[in-house]
């Protein structure tokens, strides 16, 4: 619920600064490692948004896969099933390059 409330606070503040009357859609990007459950976040956002300018706004969540770069050979690859082994050289020294982000991409207002 706190994540949904934080999103709501951010988008309502931005919309009000821009003079918007109503928020109709909120687009959020979340890395897979954030372990966000889309249906649960949408439900909590709907409850938090009641009686605000975001009431009935659609919450769209884009999940970004986990990616990494092998520090040994430089190979960039998708990390699946928590397997951090480089598919190119078999090395295990991997830097996470994606899948940890969490931000509001944009909002649609009227």
Provide a quick synopsis of the model.
The chain has 110 residues and is α+β, with helices and mostly antiparallel strands. The protein has two helices and six strands.
**How would you sum up the major sheet?**
3 strands, mixed
The second-level CATH architecture of the domain at 2-65 and 98-109 is: 2-Layer Sandwich
In helices, the fraction of residues equals 25-40%
Structural class, from secondary structure content? alpha+beta
Rg on CA atoms, Å = 18 Å
Shape: elongated
Number of helical segments with 4 or more residues: 2
In terms of DSSP E residues, the strand content is 25-35%
The CATH first-level class of the domain at 2-65 and 98-109 comes to Alpha Beta
Query: Which spans of ≥5 residues are poorly predicted at pLDDT below 50?
Result: none
| CATH fold name of the domain at 2-65 and 98-109 | hypothetical protein PF0899 fold
Rounded average pLDDT: 97
Order of helices and strands: HEHEEEEE
Number of DSSP strand runs: 6
* Gap from first CA to last CA: 26 Å
Q: Please give the order of strands in the largest beta sheet.
A: 2-1-6
Features:
25% helix, hypothetical protein PF0899 fold, alpha+beta, 3-stranded mixed sheet, 2 helices, 3-stranded antiparallel sheet, 110 residues
Describe it.
With 110 residues, the protein is of the alpha+beta class. The protein has a domain at 2-65 and 98-109: 2-Layer Sandwich (hypothetical protein PF0899 fold). The chain is built from two helices and six strands; from the N terminus they run αβαβββββ. A hairpin with a 5-residue loop joins strand 3 (67-70) and strand 4. The longest helix has 16 residues, at 2-17.
